[in-house]
Design a protein that fits this description.
This protein has 361 residues and is an alpha+beta fold. The chain is built from 13 helices and nine strands.
Length: 361
């Protein structure tokens, strides 16, 4: 590496947050936040600061992975959506509580990168491209939830990497998760999150009203049929027409399409602050059905992470708001990559309307 390259790398890494705590301290903070150990207010404040730093430290590895992903997708699907995000504070704590043996320093999806492609054929092509990749990052986990869908209907491909870069040793060993989805799989996941937001239930985590969870299982089973992939558990012996009829009956009983269509936020209810940003803090107020978007330049990433933590503190205090700090290019691409934060389920609604029509044929 030339001296000029070293200067550029130094300037770039200075822009990003670096880990300030040991792995043991990170794990201890996770135990405090998950309620696994007794703690006082000072310890909780300390643990929150540790998590904020640990989470923010994943931005640099994700950023480098995003560039590689976009390069691979150029030849496979030039219109694919690419986005990156840092996992939300409440989601991290909930996951630690759901899995008592999990350590915060070993959580693999704090840093997330997502690609949404147009078809199953292109999904398999990008998967193979990563399987044949020659970079030094270590693949430590792979889950094909398309060939083996989850019981709740979730379908996607997850690849977990451990970051390796001798030129940026402070980030060595951090994990990040790459999610690969088709547009239909993405539409289903978006609808689950959007409905969960308004029901006040963690449908995404398999919790909440049974009727709604069963509807999304049936919807996923129908979409799997449309995409000609492995059946969702529980639907292995069902004929396609029977699955479509089940979706139609459940939709009619719950009035799913009417409710999802009513959640959509009009364009004039989205407030975007002026300025260009490599990152955007997207804030959804589900009470007023409004969205605000704050852009942050790369040089203001630390400020963006601080603002992200402040919004999450308000969420924890009971305000009906959710936030996510993401990088997805222009606002239009941002809305397509994270439609649940814009209450946009149009793609899912369109597909379910087709399924219902086919159930009558």
């Amino acid at each position: 590496m030339s001296p000029s390259d070293l200067i550029v790398l130094s300037e770039l890494t200075m822009t990003f947050v670096s880990p300030q705590y040991s792995r043991n301290q990170v794990n201890r903070a996770g135990d405090v936040l998950a309620g696994r150990t007794e703690f006082d207010l000072d310890q909780w404040v300390w643990a929150s600061a540790v998590l904020a730093n640990w989470r923010a430290s994943h931005a640099y590895p994700i950023n480098t992975f995003q560039a590689l992903l976009r390069l691979k997708l150029k030849e496979i699907d030039s219109k694919a959506l690419v986005a990156q995000r840092l996992k939300r504070f409440p989601s991290i704590v909930t996951k630690l509580q759901r899995f008592p043996e999990m350590q915060l320093a070993r959580m693999q999806d704090i840093g997330g990168l997502r690609a949404v492609v147009s078809s199953m054929a292109r999904l398999r092509k990008i998967e193979i491209a990563y399987q044949n990749a020659t970079f030094k990052h270590l693949l430590v986990g792979a889950k094909d939830y398309v060939n083996e869908p989850k019981e709740d209907g979730y379908r996607s491909i997850h690849l977990v990497y451990r970051y390796k870069n001798v030129r940026a040793p402070m980030y060595e060993g951090l994990s990040l998760e790459l999610q690969l989805r088709t547009r239909l799989q993405h539409a289903w996941a978006t609808a689950v999150e959007t409905m969960g937001t308004f029901l006040g239930q963690a449908l995404k985590s398999g919790q909440g009203d049974t009727d709604w969870r069963q509807f999304f299982e049936k919807a996923s089973a129908a979409i799997a049929i449309v995409e000609r992939t492995s059946p969702v558990p529980g639907f292995e012996d069902c004929a396609p027409k029977d699955v479509f009829i089940q979706v139609a009956e459940a939709e009619r009983r719950l009035k799913v399409l009417h409710k999802l269509s009513g959640f959509a936020i009009a364009a004039d209810r989205i407030t975007t602050e002026r300025g260009q940003g490599a990152y955007h803090l997207v804030i959804l107020d589900s009470g007023s059905r409004t969205v605000s978007i704050r852009p942050y330049a790369l040089a203001r990433l630390e400020e963006a992470n601080h603002a992200y933590s402040e919004i999450e503190a308000r969420t924890n205090a009971g305000e009906p708001i959710e936030a996510v700090l993401v990088s997805a290019g222009p606002i239009d691409a941002l809305r397509k990559a994270y439609p649940n934060y814009f209450l946009d389920t149009a793609a899912f609604v369109t597909q379910i309307e087709k399924v219902i029509a086919d159930s009558r044929g």
